[in-house]
Write a structure and sequence with these properties.
10 helices, two-stranded antiparallel ribbon, globular, eight-stranded mixed beta sheet, 10 strands, single chain, alpha/beta, about 220 residues
Length: about 220
Amino acid sequence: MHHPELTMAAYKAAIDDGADGFECDVRITKDNQLVLWHDADMQRICGDSALIANSTLSEIKDIYPEAMTLEELLILARDNKKELAIETKHPVPTGSAVEKAVLTLLAQEKAVADIYIMSFSWLALEKVRLISPQQKTVALLDKRFGGLMRRFTSAQAIGPGITTLREKPELSRDERKLFVWTVDDAHDMRFCASKGVDVLITNTPSYARSVLGYH
């Protein structure tokens, strides 16, 4: 069953579907709250042009009551012993404020299993390393700057999209941990398994478990 992205209903469905962990996108609001949101504005999800960076959490929830905070997801992950991959979104007008806020929150929450911070921004990941050298990070690879990111990042893991991995299967020989997104097709799932992918990010965890033979 389909649930709106980045909502409590979606994450609870992922638990029911046997997901090993959660993935989320995080932005910081005008009042410095960490909200789960992919786009810079609210247009695609609810037809409102409000910008996340220019809105308070209260204003966002008035427009879209299902909006979640990162703290709420951390509690859900902790209570259900799920790993967590947090993508900080860039570019944003607040620069590295989102990474600082995420690390502050994580420092208060010790009981979640593995937590990774992911980003397409090389600078964001270096800021994370500077603030918290022990924090695990994933360098997300885009088509334009993926080669440079892979070469110069300090991240312990790399994260190509499934299309990139198919075009460059040699990425699977990288010594770092391999996260691949977003893998919803059975052929792609089997391809990832054959390449030794460590973390498969999918919208269909129950289907993925069935295809890959996990019970």
